[in-house]
Amino acid sequence: MTAPLTQTIDVIATPAKVQNVNPVNLLCFFLNCATQLGYGLFMPVAQVIPCNAYGVAVGFFSIITCWCLARRDEKADRWNCQACASTIFILGLSVLIIVYAGVGGERAPGRVGSLGMLVGIIMYAAPLSVLQEVIRTKSSAPLPVMQIFLGFLNSLCWLAVGLRNQKLPVWAPNVFGMLLSLIQLVLILKYPAKQESDVEAAEENPAPPLKEHVAADFVRSRTGELAETVAEISVLVKSVSGIFENNPNMCMEHNTNESTDSQEKETVAGEATNSPADAPVLLGRFGRGHKDRADAVKKAVEEDGAAASQERRSVQL
Known about the structure:
With 317 residues, the chain is an all-alpha fold. The chain has 2 domains: 3-227; 247-316. It has 12 helices and no strands. Helix 1 (3-13) runs parallel beside helix 3 (49-70), helix 7 (145-165) packs antiparallel against helix 8 (168-190) and helix 11 (248-274) runs antiparallel to helix 12 (279-316). The longest helix has 38 residues, at 279-316. The radius of gyration is 35 Å and the shape is elongated. It is a multi-pass membrane protein.
């Protein structure tokens, strides 16, 4: 419910950013909260009232603030006459819905609740009203990151509750809400809020992007780094697999060494069992054999290291 407020605070600090605020998002948010508030007040459902009352206050404050700032900005094209008519219509419709829930009879709150499910789906789909612009300019600046992300989490939680309680009116609309939010998140990750290489987009949308897009840029960069790391690991795995496929003798030698060691162990163990008195001598002989191998390998490595050091000194001289 606080997501639109973060946008509004950012716009108050930088009034030019009102160009990137889509009035459709705020109006649908306000209508959804007002519908749910009417349902909660007169059904009654006490748990629904506080959060939606807060949402109505946040939505109303955000709408009025953006309108005040948009009137001073000639480039705020989204806040035009059509947006003004839509604002008046949504505010009036919200009042009528609450009044109907209170005086419309016993079935009125239930009908308002059913209407609230439809309005909720519309609210989740509202950011897609600028889909054509986002694809054309390849910029996600008009999409409200916080509202979309928190809406996705909200739908996910209510979907889990609805499925657990087997309540169709609870989980059905949240399936649509989750899918719509997921589509919008994909668009945000695919298209940054502003591309400096796209001169035309920068001229059409000169306002700086909202601060909430910084988090999206961070996630986008980390996702790219993760994809590169996964690609490097897959290439390394393929290379190692190719080496073993092209040189099957390596695996055979390794298996031969292991089988030889196991045979030696079995032989020593058998001799030690048959001659308990000679067991320490046999085991010591087996241990010395492995120790001699390790010493030989260590000596070879030291000789290679000395030779490499001698070569480096010769080059330096």
